[in-house]
Amino acid sequence: MVNNTILLSHGSGGKQSKELLDLIYRTLNRVVINHGEDSGVINIVDGKAAITTDSYTIDPIFFPGGNIGKLAICGTTNDLAMVGAIPQFITLSLIIEEGFSFDDLKKILIAIRDETEKGNISIIAGDTKIVSKGKIDKIFINTAGYGEIISKDTISSQNAEPQDVVIITGDIGDHGASIMAYRNGFTSALKSDCANVAPLIKALLEQGIKIHALRDPTRGGLASILNEIVASSKVNIVLEEEKLPIKDSVSGVCDALGIDPLYMACEGRAVIICPKDETDKVLEILHNETLGENAQVIGRVAEKSDTPKLFLKTFIGAKRILPLLSREQTPRIC
Predict the structure, then answer these.
(1) CATH architecture, range 8-149
(2) How many CB atoms lie within 10 A of CB 125?
(3) Among 217, 233, 246, 258, which is least packed, fewest CB within 10 Å?
(4) Residue 169 and residue 177: Cα distance in Å, rounded?
């Protein structure tokens, strides 16, 4: 290509559009099965399936531990996994600003290809739009994901029960802290935890683990998603501060910016709420997986309540409420 940036004509449907699509298909290899058709066709499974959709506008688009392409695939697969579904198909729509670098686009496509190949996921359909310079910020990605539900029981934020345990599969706040450190020019070895957690959930479900609720603590972090669960299940949840796995580097970034790490996004973690008698087996399975080797119990579901709340039991034994935030602390984090 003579010009190494994307032009409006690459979205016109003509020769340059074909050149752009050829680059996309060539980079993604045979993952894309929608070559030139307006819709992809799949065989429907017997039983239940899950569908999700999401859009990704993260700034910066390249960050320590990943880029917007990796984030889009992991974010979509993780949403499917949170209802006990195994990701199978994904759609991919790229909205690209005029002047965007082909080299950067290829890096993003390679990340998408690598994540879909690792997860055995097919890109069933896609779309590409080019918009005038200044109308969007570099590149946005929209996805839809489809997966077969393998859980025998319904997994829902409404199903948390008193005496259940709250388990997290790894350290808290790595993604949000790494993005904020990068934006603010901090020297930090922090990397995003961006990863596909579906294999972890699949391993639990295939071993017959009963799970009441699952959530990935993305935008709004651990405290926000647990607030949603307490409201949906009408229960109180108590977290234990001394058991929360937070890196010193994450705490340092958060302290410098005046942000609570419990509200910082994770992109490769799952919060598992399950019966207490499943605890040892869940931890044994998770600890045998690289992504779950730091999994631990961080709290418990307490009593039913008409005014449900999320509590933090502090190091000194006092309890304080962790509320839903009224404003966005970290915009464009995903």
Answers:
(1) 2-Layer Sandwich (3.30)
(2) 19
(3) 258
(4) 18
Contact 173, 265 (CB under 8 A): yes
CA gap 154, 298 in Å, rounded: 23
Tokens of 237: 């949840």
Cβ atoms of residues 261 and 251 within 8 Å: yes
Number of CB atoms found within 10 A of residue 135's CB: 10
What is the C-alpha separation between 286 and 306, in angstroms, rounded?
A: 34
Q: How many CA atoms lie within 13 A of 40 on its CB side?
A: 21
**Tens digits of per-residue pLDDT, 147-181?**
999 999 999 999 999 999 999 999 999 999 999 99
Asked if 115 contacts 143 with a C-beta cutoff of 8 angstroms, the reply is no
DSSP character for 32?
Answer: B
CA dist., res. 195 & res. 81, Å (int): 12
Residues of the chain with CATH 3.30.1330.10: 8-149
